[in-house]
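Morning!

As promised:
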Amino acid sequence: MEETHIETQPQNRLEATLVGLLFVFLAVGMVYLGSRGWLPRLASRHGAGIDNMLIYLLVSTGTLFLAGHFVLGYFIWRFGGQAKPSHRLSSKKVERNWSLVLGLIMTLVAEGGVLAIGMPVWGEYFAAAPPADALTIEVTSEQFAWNVRYPGVDGQFGSISPALIDVSNPIGLDPDDSIGNDDITTVNQIYVPVDEPVRIRLRSKDVIHSFFLPELRVKQDAVPGMTIDIWFVPTESGQFELACTELCGLGHYRMKGFFNVMTAAEFDTWLAEQSS
Amino acid sequence: MTTVARPVPPRPAIHPSQMGMWVFLATISMLFAAFTSAYIIRRVAADWVPIALPRILWLNTAILLGSSIFVELARKAVGGDEWSSAKRWLRTATLIGLAFLGGQMMAWRILVAAGVFVPTSPHSSFFYIFTGVHGLHLLGGLLLLLWTTRRIGGPRPPVKVDARRWLDLAATYWHFLGGLWVFLLLVLWAL
Amino acid sequence: MSDKDLGFVRRYIFSTDHKIIGIQYMLTGFLMAAVGGLIAMLIRLNIAWPGKQWAFLEAIFPQGMAGGIMSPEFYIALVTMHGTIMVFFFISYVLVSGFGNYLVPLQIGARDMAFPFLNMLSFWIAAASALVMLLSFFAPGGAAAAGWTAYPPLSAIASAVPGSGMGQTLWLLAMALFIVSFTMGGLNIIATVFSGRAPGMTMRRMPLTVWSYLVASVIGVLAFPPLTAAAIMLLFDRHFGTSFFLPEGLVVAGELLNHQGGTPLLWQHLFWFLGHPEVYVLILPALGIVFDVIPAFTRKPVFGYRITVYCYLAVAALSMIVWGHHMFVSGMSPYSGEYFSVMTMVITIPSAIIGVNMLGSLWGGAIRLKTPMLFALGLIAFFGTGGFGGIFLGNATADVQLHDTYFVVGHFHFMIGGVTLLATFASVYFWFPKMFGRMMNDKLGKLHFWLTLVSFYCIFLTQHFIGLAGTPRRYYAFTDYEFLEGIRGPQMLVSVAAFVMGASQLIFMANFCWSLWKGKKAPINPWHATTLEWTLPSPPPHGNWGAELPTVERWAYEYSAAEAQDDFTSQVVPASQIPATF
């Protein structure tokens, strides 16, 4: 038999206590920091559903997180001074029961969260078609700007062709198509009335970008070759920032747009000004 | 709770080299499964223009499947200790395999002559990739056949087991590539 | 069997001995980790002080840091290469290939891997892959800059970003070599575990470490080929004018390109088909190793051995059908999103069970807080934290807000930079005595642990919070947006903590190097552990077992058996001497 090495000697009680306490302290500290209001202020209708989902997850996983760290810290403290194990082998039943308990917890918390809260919100945001009277705005992203187009008085978008794209015609509007004559175009500026559904037709000229309005809880990748519809209802007036959240090249960090939400009257005024 | 020591497990029925080969075939299958799913997805786009597959491909297919027969004949010969027969069958299979590759390159030349290149249509892109990647794997198969022929030609009887094992590996690989080719050709032709 | 007649080159350079190959993988991996880590320091430097001039850096990177200021294109190349190097060339090389090669034959009682020559080939192809990846920094236009995820069209069109020139091509070639190497290695592990076990080493007596390498290898070899297919198609789109991923009407740098019909989403599906199982390839060995380290420091068997094996299998199978949770807002069908979200939540079940089994393995034990055990305990904490973050991201609704924000960065660093990193350290401290015959300094090890743990939490938990605040990923600077004003302070904290964490690794390196020559000489079983490798000399000789293979009589966790005099019973002790429990 070998000499007893320092590696196999029993644990110092004080060290075990400190280590156990540290894990608990770390966890409490993190939960404290995490419960400061990190989410941006809410400014859309479906966003309330997303926030519900997030808060549910923060509370439920936060609780499990604390519980797990408490258990870890407690075990280290309690068993960190023993010279020999006080409990050796659990029965198959105990092992199985703990698996069932965790399986149940995860099913309820994780899967339950998705099924009960998540999917209804998802269905409403994504899978449902936009209301027929939604204001439709086309946004064509490019390196590194957002090209915005309104259909104008006739309510129809004029045809566009990539072959016609140049510096002065960033989305390739066809001058020969009379339907497009009343289209209103801006760069990096979107204007919408508050409390009305907005439908964004997302496109991209070059690489994948992503249309992100943090306060409105809106995010959708803009994929070249696809026209992707999303819709939502802004509920707060003000100017919100539009950020790109899909790596798109060297200007990815500065692809800033402005999403301006205003009263219906102000919006109609703006629209009229553009048309003249 | 104590138990009596459990009995020693029997030696596995499959030699590790065969298991290694099956795993390798699984990875090749996954590779072409990915290519096939890409094919199916790409198939529905508006710009899909099917190309006329050169008729020589059907001849090549027959050649490749035929070569499998010779590999099996080699296997039977080795089972009956007929080593020089085995070598002959293997050499035949190798030559036929070489002819297959030559035929595939012929198919490429026919397409190029008809103005069908890699980017001409998505169908042609897949054609060149399927035949190219399969052909590369087949080249490896030819090298394996040559190596196996060499092992068979070695001193006997000590490395008989070794030679049989190599032949089993080469045969498994070769037959798989034959079957894979039929699958790929059907995808290119029918889908 | 002796290898003394082979020259130095055959013994140490082109060795077919799994132990040498394992160490070669580890050294290569740690070298790449240093590169990846230094890149991280540069990234954090730029985030903390955007636009600041660093004259000394201009000397090293004349193009990327022209005028001493980091350019945005250099920044995103650094971000790309950091991710690529750390995932594939650090963790995979050290933890999966390195320790996998070293431990698996020893722990099952084999003399070597099933295919030693193939093993040697796999390492040298891996080394070539690493070299090509490093060379890509010097390509015209610099290294790849489309993220480690390489989404086209950004990665397909050279004019879209400078790194998409030669740099991206070299990246793809390096990855092709990597996949070939990994496939060879995975194949070897599978064949070895199935046919190389010593007499008496039934599957049920294998340590959880071996199980984890087996399962990881199976999913690895099945999941990587689709990435090969995708890489080939991307190379073709880049160089041969095809349109697998490129649609019609692309206008890049003022030029209308003549592709048509392709879809960028196809790349994403193929990439993530590999990408998701890949993270389990990395994390399963981490978890398996921890299940072997913990019992040595609790002096009692693991809790839930059989259940853990089933959970490995469940996690592996499930991991292959949930890849779409990386694509909830990609433009993929929302119905697919529903499926992927519901299915992803199922994975939390076996994962949580594995976690509870780790905690249960502590219950009632005689816990000893040596360095390897501290890393194992930290790993449990990280696994839980990272796992909970995963519940947010796998939830499609929550992911709308969190996708491509720092929440994701925080989450995956907990799993890959946290769980796997701590497992790597635990493995080094634990098996160093077996590999080199000396002990590492335990006090320095503990210092390394605490500095790493605390700074890690400061960095990556904070990133969860700023992700909740909406901070986008891969941003060169955060100064353009008002909604990000509140996160600039936390970003500074993160950078400072990152510098501390980076510096702390120097303690590890110093300890490692010093201990190689001056470490206290180790007995052959310093931790009094039960698995087979601890019955061998340190380091084990070529061929491992001498004239006769060992005969295995019991499972791998015979600690504190009632009838035994010692508080551990090696796997080779006959059952007639001390009855086998389990």
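The mean pLDDT of chain A is 92.

Hope this helps with the figure draft.
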